[in-house]
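To make this tangible, we now present a fold written out as tokens:
***
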Amino acid sequence: MDMRTQVIDKTVVVSSVEGNVQILLADGSSRPLQKGEILQPGAKLNIADDAKLILAPYDDSPASATPDAAAPDAPVPGQPQAPDAGSATSPDIAALQQSILQGVDPTQNFEASAAGGAPAAGGGGGGIGGVAGASGNGGFVTIDRTGDATIAAAGFDTTYQTEPVVDTQQLAEPLLTNELADQGEQLTVPEDGVLNGNVLTNTVNADGPDAASVLFFSWGDNVNVVVGTSVTIDGVGSLVINADGSFTFTPAPNYDGAVPPATYTVTDGTDTVQSTLALTIIPANDISDQNESVVATEDTLISGNLLANTIDNDGPQAPSVTGFSWGSIINPALGTPVTLTGVGTLVVNADGSYLFTPAPNYDGPVPTVNYTVTDGTDTVQSTLSIAITSVDEPVGLAGLQLDGGELTLNEAALADGSNPNATALTQSGVFTFNAADGVQSLTLGGVTLISNGQAITVFPQAITSPLGNQLVVTGINYNPVTGLGSVNYSYTLSDNENHTKPVNDAALGESFGVVLVDTDGDSTSGSLDVVILDDVPSVTLTSGSEGVGSVFVDESLVSLGGAGNDGVASASLSAATVQAQFNPAFGADGAGTIGYSLALTGSNVASGLFAVDPQAPAGQGEAIVLNQVGNVITGSAGGVDYFTLTINPSTGEV
């Protein structure tokens, strides 16, 4: 129940108490107010709103004698004093005086008249406490106002008109003006700070009688709080105000909103005033974001959220990313992929999500991502650090595994070859290599093309082959970031080669070794193979077969079983005639030797000739067949040799 404080400013007596009325004691405690108590100026009462309190003026100072009246005789001890005939005090009045002096409630012993001297009981005139003839300006005033007490401003006489008890001069004096004042306080405190101060700093108390102090205070739902008690408003903070005015306000963590004003009552022992303590919290930048650091394996996507480490207790909005920079890329649009050549691609979204795609085989440093976070009011800067862990990548060579060799040249193209062609004497090619971890070295035919990741820059680079020909490196393309590269080369045939039988009779090859080593020691090897075709000798028939020579034989000789002597037993086809039938070519290897032979394919080859048989029709006997042994071809029939063809392998004579 609500209560208010009333400070007594004149001496009064408590005539009646109904409800909860407490008197505040000097030690700060309180007790219920009792009927009949005499209250001195400065006494403090706490009165409940529904309480009823009746107070009557009280003056215990002796009344002054009437100037014209004779001094009364001194009383004789032990003897009753007879009243003065002219100024005798009514017994009822005397009894009333005695009751008041003893602190007894007069209403319990006498019939009370209303203020203003209503007729007393028994039909008498207006009086005090029901006593007829009492002064019309005296008596009790009953206060029937909830939660308040009103000090009666009426006096009364206890000796009728001749011996007033109350000093009418004193009663006529106006009440003193309340010179106690407090202007209130308007103070600020930083968010998450603590504010100490004193609410009496602005108090003016010129007339006392006591030093100003705080009686009680209210804050939010905390009403009429006893000074020195700490109270809390959830989510706002805690407040304690002490009697000496000192106070401490502690805002709730991270709170920077409105603070209800605190009202407090100040007293100087007589008067009271109400005042207000207004508090304002100065917001602090509570948003924070710890830096992010991620590690990923080479060739692996990296995703996450930049706001995972963000702390924002007071908003007003959810934190978001407003912009970022990465290497040479400054403030690109959020949600748009951006690329650092050779490093990778990054996309950052407003909600903090991001995706980083490393460049293929890249395991080097990644520039730091700088980004800005806001909560709608405050902003902070933060960073994302990305590290890529390398993996052991294999090394490889390509373009060196061609069947039959990478290059093929023919001796026939030589100037002394069977088909001279200077352009055909030089052939070109290319092979590729890859070392994702970086190339440590690359050699070709024992010559270093790349060393410590640095390729040679002087071209052409000639390499003399074991056969005396020339392999020339015409260029190298190498990307240290990706580890990919290629080598361009050419091979020139300078002269005919010695093709030995039987292995290299038609073709002769030579190889150039290729060795690739990466930065962590992985290696692979291959060979660049060149094939040189032999310009072999060739023979063609001369044009114009009409120039072919012929021979004539006649079997009519007796020695051959004939009957005459004009037969021809044998004949020869000259070497010159035979040689004239052929056009030999020795090729680039130079002139050698020419040999001749008869060529008969198979055995018992039909010759188209028949033996003579007189008994047979038309004398045609058995067919003659051909068989070759060495340089001799024999025609026979029925086991009988009829003729032979013999060739000279050196001259070709038949």
